[in-house]
Amino acid sequence: MKYFYIFTVVAIVVTVLAVLFVPGVDDFVEVTFQRYLGRAAS
User: Fold this and answer.
1) How far does CA 20 lie from the centroid of its chain?
2) Strand ranges (DSSP E) for 1-42?
3) Is residue 29 within 8 Å of 19, Cβ to Cβ?
4) What are the backbone dihedrals phi and psi of residue 22, each rounded to the nearest 5 degrees, phi first?
5) From CA 21, how far away is CA 5, in angstroms rounded?
6) d(CA 42, CA 3)
7) What does the radius of gyration of the chain's CA atoms come to, in whole angstroms?
8) Within 13 Å of residue 5, how many CA atoms lie on the same side as its CB?
9) From the centroid of its chain, how far is CA 34?
């Protein structure tokens, strides 16, 4: 279970850094989250 939390934190940090420094990634992340949340809401 410890590795799951470490992986989650690393994934979040990598996502934040990619959104801050790589152009175009923020749109991809936004579309991915909207697709996931839309599926979870229905």
Assistant:
1) 13
2) none
3) yes
4) -115, 120
5) 24
6) 31
7) 12
8) 2
9) 11
In the predicted model, what is the mean pLDDT of residues 10-39? 88
3-state secondary structure (DSSP) of residue 22: coil
Beta-carbon count within 10 A of 40 CB: 7
Kindly tell me the sign of the dihedral angle through the C-alpha atoms of 8, 18, 16, 34: negative
> Is the Cβ–Cβ distance between 11 and 4 less than 8 Å?
no
* Model confidence pTM above 0.70: no
% of the chain surpassing 90 pLDDT? 33
Question: Band of the pLDDT at 26, cuts 50, 70, 90?
Answer: confident
- Mutual angle of helices 25-41 and 2-21, in 10-degree steps: 130
For the residues 14-31, what does the mean pLDDT come to? 88
